[in-house]
Write a structure and sequence with these properties.
The complex is a heterodimer of chains A (about 230) and B (about 80). Chain A is α/β, with parallel strands linked by helices and about 230 residues long. Chain A has 5 helices and 11 strands, in the order βαββαβαββββαβββα. In chain A, the strands form 2 sheets. In chain A, strands 2-1-3-4-11-10-9-6-7 form a 9-stranded mixed sheet, with helices on both faces. In chain A, strands 5-8 form a two-stranded antiparallel ribbon. Chain B is elongated and about 50 Å long. The longest helix of chain B is centred in the last third of the chain and has 13 residues, at about 50-65. Chain B has 2 helices and 3 strands. Helix content of chain B is about 30%, strand content about 25%. Classes of the chains: A alpha/beta (about 230), B alpha+beta (about 80).
Chain lengths: ~230, ~80
Amino acid sequence: MAFDVAVLTFPGSNCDADLRWAVDNTPELSARAVWHKETELGSPDAVLLPGGFSYGDYLRCGAIARFSPIMNAVMAFAKAGGPVLGICNGFQVLTEAGLLPGALLSNAGQKFICETVVLGKEGRETAFTKGLPETLRIPIAHHDGNFFADEATLARLEGEGQVLFRYLNAQGERQAGAAPNGSMNDIAGICNAAGNVVGMMPHPERASDPALGSADGSALFSALQGFLESK
Amino acid sequence: MNARVFVNLKPGVLDPAAKAVQGGLHSMGFDEVQSLRLGKVIDLKLEDRPDAEERLKAMCEKLLANTVIESYRIEIGD
């Protein structure tokens, strides 16, 4: 039986269908759409929060989605150790909900950036990153992806291997300031202290088939498959 | 009763939009502007209740401000 992957949809989500496609395109994973007004998740094996502009990004990106009825169930699922991945707006929702540390500010250049970036994979092995190649080419598409955390939080993220993805330069090398959006320490993705909640600004679902220009993103969904099979 | 909530980015948090506005003032010749922050003003009309201030604080902490990056101030009017 396939693993049940809940993909949330908030009003203003626009990557949910692509994300479900990428999940369904992975052996043994089956995507299930969950509307934000639901109060129960059922019993999923993983929960994914898609990109988009939930609630029009009013007030702050992700601030209002964080109080959607379904989020209580997501918080409970995360606290029980269930694997949760937030992509782009989903990452913003997870920081607003306090499930991930830090915040996503406006891009330093005040521009919406839509381009393929080179990511370095590092840090802990999580349900979504175990066995990933060292570098991946995955697109970003955001206006507010500038990762910020206070000094102590940043030190903890770096020290505990909670930085999972970092923007590299075009040659795939670490270079201070390589982040196109001004992110501190060029951080593109992190996990929580327990390692089960992951957030990232780049869109793996948009790089999940060779026809899309890169299939590197599909490795995250394969990693989830591997993680669930080994449980 | 009326209340006004001011929300602004904490000092040290990059505010590129404010920087752009400040740059605009400078290019107009207003060189005296040393710093500028773009905040939000939120006006609320509320039912009178004895714990109003406490509840306003909760609104700020939970939703109106993200205290990781923002500070807030509450003014209570008539």
